[in-house]
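Margin note: ligand = arginine.
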Amino acid sequence: MTTWIRSLRPFDAPVSRTVNGRTIDLREAERFIRLFHAENPSAGGLQARLRDVARDVARYGTYTHTYEELEFGARVAWRNSNRCIGRLYWRSLKVRDRRDVHTAEGVALECVAHLRAAMGSGKGAARGKIRPTITVLPPDTPVMRAPRILNDQLIRYAGYRTPGGVVGDPANVALTEAAQALGWRGGGGMFDVLPLIIHPGRGRPLLCTLPGDAVLEVPLTHPEYPWFAELGLRWHAVPAISNMCLEIGGLCYPCAPFNGWYMGTEIGARNLGDEARYNLLPVVAERLGLDTSTERSLWRDHAMVELNVAVLHSFEQAGVTMTDHHTESRRFLTHLEREERAGRVCPADWSWIVPPMSGSATPVFHRYYDTRVLTPAFVHHD
Ligand code: ARG
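Resulting structure:
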């Protein structure tokens, strides 16, 4: 069951700079409509659509995307994501149009439904076969502020500040404390799934505990070291970013959670390895019996490799979709070539594209990229 807790205090939500109380930029709208028609010639009726959009913007300060425009806009926002190495499959993004959902409870139910759909627990599909999915909730309009999700991902592990340091994920201490201030009581463990904090356009925020079947997790084991399981590590299967605005043609959708599948290094190198996250390299190095008294033993590097072997192995065993950084690097270059053949630039940020381990052993390391910023896009508003 999904549980709700209404908080007692009003919530100070960040305000979108785009369309909250303001009319949208007609030039942005026109540019997008032209792009849509240029890439979808069968849509037809460009001039009529431009006229309608201009009329709506003049009258209401906003306009409404057709489903086809929304689907295309969301896919192109992924295609334009400079930091994402996994863009080869941008055309396959499944777009759930939920622009008719306006309440915080409705948003919460859609987030749960999104997670279930994304991890393939639906009809026929095997649980664990992850499908890139986005759920689009209403945009901001001049007269109505849309709901928002405070969590930066739908699934996040709590981080508890204790006298001995943070227990859990230090990246989520602020979110954990926000949930606690709204009445949530966590178990104090290393991997406690946080509730969603959703604030509606107006009124009080809603706390929503995710039902267990919506959160698929993989316990981590190592193919050669039985002691690895004793560390009690795990990670969730679906990375679903929930605090970025989807910007399409001047419209801002502040609540549009989207997911792909994981690349092993995100978990094995960064989430579990970073000093400011779970900081597990010293723990693993010690269990491996490595000499940590000198950097020159490369104990950090050894430990990182074994952590990543464990992550890839465990997801594979659990039947959960995951990619490795060598395969994904090659796919990214395939994507780049395809885009160039289609007459487009593929903008990319080298510092995000190059994997966090063994960079130069992957082909994406050995070149530079076009760094321009295109829209539609996923953006962070402050
Ligand atoms: N790096 C983030 C994490 O470890 C997830 C970012 C999105 N990743 C993805 N594979 N779609 O949770």
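Residues 86, 153, 239, 241, 260, 262-263, 266, 271 surround arginine (CB under 6 Å).
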